[in-house]
Amino acid sequence: MNHFGKTFKFIREGKGLSLATVAKNHVSTSQLSRFENGESDITVQKLIQVLEEMNVSLNEFIHACQDFKEDEFSRMIGQLKIHVYNRDSMRMKQLLSEQLMKVELGIHEEFHRINAILIKCKLKEIEKTVFVTAEEITYLTDYLFRIENWGYYELRLFANIMENLSHRYLMLCCRELVARTEFYSELHEYKLLLSQILLNGYLICIERSKFIEAVFFEKMIASHFFDETDIFNRLLFHYCKGYYKYKKDKDVNGILEMRKCIGLLRSVDSHHLANWYEKMLENIPNK
């Protein structure tokens, strides 16, 4: 509470605003002053109202309260993404050890156990000697189905374990996905992540030759997502459609479309992504 108040005061003074200007009729200036000095609290509703008077979003304020650092899960996912791109299994194992150590110490045990299994799912893609047990996958899916409204954490968790799910579980989760994220559907970052999950589901179905289910994802994506400014996801959608065309109909034009998308990624210096999708393309048999 004290930290929140100090951060609020830092932002207010940085904008050159008085207590009275910010407080308006939402809260008394004396109560707001006590909040800034760590002497009392204010409700979330009042906090949002006075933040709006400063043109500061709640997300911005929380980020400032965390000393402008990402939360633990975001930091871990960011590091994991880099290590996966670089195929750096040693650093991935270090991340895994850190999470398992926290489980052993009883620190936020469920959270760190989930993180550890997620890391193992990604590590398995690089080292074939690493196995994720059925019990570990069940632990993740039980958690997801226990949560009625999936937030950003649950979406990112699901996005990173999709390829490790059986096809039945994958489709069950994806069909539940829209209903379980409806609560947050108007938030841009959630909609963006949801679209990326659907794209990944589309790609997985094509790889598994589940063409009927692939059409389900294609229709969902085409009808709900991607305005003209969302260049990357539109590009990836075309890559997937090229893959579908080749995989289902053996149409070589699909391969040409995939190569065109990879070339466009390279043209904007997205070389890690281009390498990732090029490797997928090179692994397609009989192309």
From TrEMBL:
InterPro entries associated with the record: Cro/C1-type_HTH, HTH-type_regulator_Rgg, Lambda_DNA-bd_dom_sf, Transcription_activator_Rgg_C
> Which SMART domains is this protein grouped with?
HTH_XRE
Give one Pfam family, short name only.
HTH_3
> What Gene Ontology molecular-function terms does this entry list?
DNA binding
Ranges where the HTH cro/C1-type domain occurs: 8-61
Q: PROSITE patterns given for it?
A: HTH_CROC1 (PS50943)
The organism sits in which domain of life? Bacteria
UniProt name for this protein: Helix-turn-helix domain-containing protein
